[in-house]
Design brief:
The complex is a heterodimer.
Chain A: H1 2-21, H2 23-33, H3 36-49, H4 56-64, H5 68-72, H6 74-77, H7 83-99, H8 103-117, E1 121-124, E2 133-136, H9 141-144, H10 149-168, H11 181-188, H12 190-208, H13 215-231, H14 234-249, H15 254-279, H16 291-298, H17 307-316, H18 320-334, H19 339-344, H20 354-373, H21 393-398, H22 403-435, H23 442-453
Antiparallel strand pairs in A: 1-2
Helix pairs in contact in A: 2-7, 2-15, 7-8, 7-10, 8-10, 8-12, 10-12, 13-15, 14-15, 14-20, 16-20, 17-18, 17-22, 20-22
Chain B: E1 3-7, H1 12-27, E2 33-37, H2 41-44, E3 50-53, H3 61-71, E4 75-77, H4 80-84, H5 88-100
Chain lengths: ~450, ~100
Amino acid sequence: MGGFISFLERRVLPVAGRIAEQKHLQAIRDGIILAMPLLIIGSLFLIIGFLPIPGYDEFMGGVFGEQWRTKLLYPVNATFDIMALIVSFGVSYRLAEKYKVDALSAGAISVASFLLATPNFTMFTPEGAAAAVQVGGVLPMMYLGSQGLFVAMLLAVISTEIYRKIIQKNIVFRMPDGVPPAVSRSFVALIPAFVVLLVVWLLRIVIENTSFESIHNIVSTVLAGPLNMLGGTLFGAIVAVLLVHLLWSVGIHGAAIVGGIMGPIWLTLMDQNRMVFQQNPNADLPNVITQQFFDLWIYAGGSGATLSLVILMLFRARSEQMKSIGRLSIGPGIFNINEPVTFGMPIVMNPLLVIPFVLAPITLVIISYLAMSFGLVAKPSGLAVPWTTPPIISGYLATGGKISGSVLQLVNFVVSLLIYYPFFRLWDRQKLQEEQGKAVTPSAAANNNNAVQL
Amino acid sequence: MNILLCCAAGMSTSLLVQRMEEAAREKGLEGRIWAVSADEVMNNLDQAQVLLLGPQVRYKLAELKKEGEARGIPVDVISPLDYGTLNGKNVLEFALRLKRN
């Protein structure tokens, strides 16, 4: 196990670091973060719209009129349903920032190129008509939401790359001294913006003449569709969780790295559920794997499902060190933050504790996936419940108010407790022996050294 | 002295901020200590005199060190043990040492 950890440190760590530092992936990750607060606010309205209280619908209808829910969900249209638009701006802004070119201009150009790639008409079949007619003057909302996410990300990257290359090659209008900086900045953006829009415009014209008809259709057929399919499987989830925890084993924030790559996929899957849920909160939802599946059912207490381990330290530890880590960890642990456990206990670089740390979450993925697929437990409803929400509450909220979500969290807690228990006992005993001044075993000394040198 | 801390979401470093503030008060130090997420660090860097990274985002060190050097701001990774045990005093000392060198 020690050899394995050193293998991770030597081979996997540099690769993970390079992926994490890759400019475009980083910009995509940071750009998506821009949409998250909006999604959480949209979710709040969704929760209020679908409170699972008997007689609630009738009561609300009686007080606010028949259209109450449609009106209540207006903010959902302006949050969930425009996430691609926000991401288009956010990704480009963050990427431009890394290249040290004007981020605001880059963001504006990216939004323009995204809308240029999006059909500005929709097909509508009037009542009694035989064929659909084309209605102009609209932006189809479906492309501005999660369905347009990959197009938004791709065009943000492409347009910002063109933008910064032209700026950095100095092909810009230079204004004479004395022109206010804001004025000259707006001119600076002209040439690159023109080139970006020209490229996207040509792309659209060409694609409109193929059977794909729009950039959105190409991207969803070639890229988004297959990726979502893969990301939504049990196998995909196990691989992702395995990677997250192997990275954490050497003290790297695995969830930030893996989530950075999988984020757009899990977000799309989440929103597919949300759209069905919004039509009918009791419908069978299409996806088990969403962002919340991991955040709320697997990572209770933080990566590694360490809340149960913290409880063990708090109530079963005999060594002073473990007792103190338990006291230190319980507060943050309830809100799913566990750095005091991973670095303080430590789990990181600890050949003994890494075993349950990897094993527990993978077991939970399998249990949770099966329980949700077989309909024993409600699937995540697509509500963006923040990952810092304490377990039990979060499971109830994220399923749109279904007790089964909380019950599964409770089951997962017990399962992870059982997996951690023997390893916790061994480690606690070792620490106790150290404290009582008994001979320190060479392996324990080595562990401590590893942890400190990291 | 203004000390900026950064981790993935700015959550666990904010735990440490509290401990460091206590330690700074005991030493009678003035200044601001605050934690941000990885995506916000560039927007905060100019207000900092030292930047410390959580060990779990140490893969950002090379990039941020470059940014720090351009501004004359020392950048380094917090020791995992001090981080895990939320040892505000040690981390504050570490920040002061970095600034002095």
